[in-house]
Design brief:
Keywords: Calcium, Disulfide bond, Metal-binding, Oxidoreductase, PQQ, Signal. This protein has three helices and 40 strands. The protein is an all-beta fold and 562 residues long. It binds pyrroloquinoline quinone and calcium ion. The site of calcium ion (CA) has 6 residues, from loops.
């Protein structure tokens, strides 16, 4: 059974992985070092497990491991329990999804949460489902939001002090983003916090729903007219938790619609990081990376807590690498901007950041207003960099406690983007924009970067032909692992970037690797199965990599017994 303490200590208790991010802060760093720069060359796969069937779509899951069982999600809201030693299936759960689900970006899922004897995950029809960890039978099920309005859940839920906290997807359909907390054991709702200014939050006291303050104070401050009522800001990547400040950090996606001329103002709390009190759902502070977003630069990217020394003083910081191409280091106690810097080679939509971390816009890079065009149907097109799929998208970076560096999976691409008129209609796409993503070079799009959060300097890079779309793992073995769409699990020297290992898993990797120890041996697992947003939305990039094959399997590796 998984306890709150297990989750809080997940990073140091190497025999299991019971949180998404290998620890609540999401550092994706393991103190294990048996697999290291000297030994990794001998690492071998020990088993592979197929998710089977016709459902081979994008596999973005991070597996969890507890007491010799691996819990992993697969496309179409499926969960598998697998024996960590043999790869034998123990049980499988298939959510019966209705025909009308509307995920924007493939039928993916990013993983489960574990609590007590439960395996909890979110579905593409926007439900939370808790399964019995032993049998896979449903223990409780809750509807978080109405999928017919365009809501879905793709993120892994998180557990904080017995509560399961989830976000929602649907920013491309004009939903209203929110974070919600449920009692992990019973599924009873505890609080609901909308992430668009003007919407009421709620808390449930003794089963009674009580108003808990309007997000942002009141409607209409940073949105014109009624646009806040369908304002997007989906919390589609879930969050991280920092026990030091008792804050849940959740990012929010694009404001809806994409056509920014329809919504003059900053459009809070879209494209922001929010620090939320896990006990009440109150927003303690917010930091908006792209105010008045006009490029779909969703700011959902994970905010990772870390400490560093500045002239003998410990700084309680947190870092995030945004879809908009800038990386930010914030003071995690209050959200103050410490520093920011580009982590991609080219950014055209902004000239830089001001002293508060607000972008200095290149106004000619904002796609034009269709109302100002001759026929009112299409605004002027611009070539903006990064593309809307981001300098970095959902795929989580890692922080090494040994090197003090962040390992950022990033992509170099641009887009032609223009605006079109649109109006909100329940359950229909609400973009008001057209776009084509284009590569910037012939030989690479993906770049894994080692970034120094104190200086903003890139320490090393690895360039990949295809866009990188999977998460990163850093270990005390001086190794950094990432999977590629070409199918490789690759291991790098954390200090130099030298490739130390590679193995082709047979389909593109868009999942996040984990490591754990069992009977004194170190294991590494990663899910393989190409998909996600790139083949669907990638324009000319999608064409360039259309030869990549789909799949759906887990691969597990270890060193030979000497
Ligand atoms: O605004 C949203 O609600 C929303 C949700 C999701 C999602 O749930 O995966 C993505 C996006 N936006 C998005 O903009 C995006 O680029 C994206 C990529 C992916 C993916 O898993 O490959 N999901 C999403
Ligand atoms: Ca989005």
């Amino acid at each position: 059974n998984v306890t709150d303490k297990d989750i809080l200590q997940d990073q140091s208790t190497v025999e299991d992985v019971v949180s998404n991010g290998l620890g609540p802060r999401g550092q994706r760093y393991s103190p294990l070092d048996k697999i290291n720069t000297n030994t990794v060359k001998d690492m071998r796969p020990v088993w592979s497990f197929s998710f089977g069937g016709e459902k081979q779509r994008g596999q973005e899951s991070q597996p969890m491991v507890k007491d010799g069982v691996m819990y992993v999600t697969a496309s179409y809201s499926r969960v598998f329990a697998v024996d960590t030693k043999t790869g034998d299936e123990l049980w499988q759960y298939d959510a019966r999804l209705p025909d009308g689900i509307m995920p924007c970006c493939d039928v993916i899922n990013r993983g489960v949460a574990l609590y007590d004897d439960l395996v909890i995950f979110g579905t593409l029809d926007a439900k939370l489902v808790a399964l019995d960890a032993k049998t896979g039978k449903v223990k409780w099920k809750k509807t978080v939001a109405d999928y017919k309005e365009g809501y879905s859940i793709t993120a892994a839920p998180m557990i904080v002090n017995g509560k399961v906290i989830t976000g929602v997807s649907g920013g491309e359909f004009g939903i209203v983003g929110k974070a919600e907390a449920y009692d992990a054991k019973t599924g009873k709702i505890l609080w609901s916090r909308p992430t668009v200014e003007g919407h009421m939050g709620y808390i449930w006291k003794d089963g009674k729903k009580v108003e808990n303050g309007i997000s942002g104070g009141k409607p209409g401050q940073t949105w014109p007219g009624d646009l806040w009522k369908s304002g997007g800001a989906a919390t589609w990547l879930g969050g991280t938790y920092d026990p030091d400040t008792n804050s849940v950090f959740i990012g929010t996606g694009n404001p809806a619609p994409w056509n920014s001329h329809m919504r003059p103002g900053d459009n809070l709390f879209s494209s922001s990081r929010l620090a939320i009190d896990p006990d009440t759902g109150k927003i303690k502070w917010h930091f908006q990376t792209t105010p008045h977003d006009g490029w779909d630069y969703d700011g959902v990217n994970e905010l990772i807590s870390f400490d560093y020394k500045d002239g003998g003083k410990t700084v309680k910081a947190a870092a995030t690498a945004d879809r908009n191409g800038f990386m930010y280091v914030l003071n995690r106690t209050n959200g103050d901007f410490i520093r920011g810097f580009p982590f991609v080679d080219e950014i055209t939509w902004a000239k830089g950041l001001d002293k508060n971390g607000r972008p200095i816009y290149n106004e000619e890079m904002r796609p034009g207003n269709p109302s100002a065009s001759e026929d009112g149907k299409k605004g002027s097109s611009v070539h903006a960099v990064p593309a809307f799929l981001g300098g970095k998208n959902w795929m989580p970076m890692a922080f090494s406690q040994d090197t003090g560096l962040f390992y950022v999976p990033s992509n170099e691409w641009g887009m032609d983007i223009w605006n079109e008129p649109t109006a909100y209609k329940k359950g229909a796409a609400y973009l008001g924009a057209g776009f084509t993503i284009k590569p910037l070079t012939d030989d690479h799009i993906g770049v894994l970067r080692a970034m120094d959060p104190k200086t903003g300097k890139e320490v090393w890079r690895y360039q990949n032909f295809s866009p990188l779309w999977g998460g990163v793992l850093a270990t005390a073995g001086n190794l950094v692992f990432i999977g590629t769409p070409e199918g490789y699990l690759k291991g790098f020297d954390a200090k130099t970037g030298e490739v130390k290992y590679q193995f082709n898993t047979g389909s593109g990797i868009v999942g996040s690797p984990i490591t754990w120890e069992q009977d004194g041996e170190q294991f590494i697992s990663v899910v393989s199965g190409w998909g996600g947003a790139v083949p669907l939305w990638g324009g000319e990039v999608a064409k360039r990599i259309k030869h990549l094959n789909q799949g759906g399997s887990i691969w597990t590796f270890k060193l030979p017994k000497s």
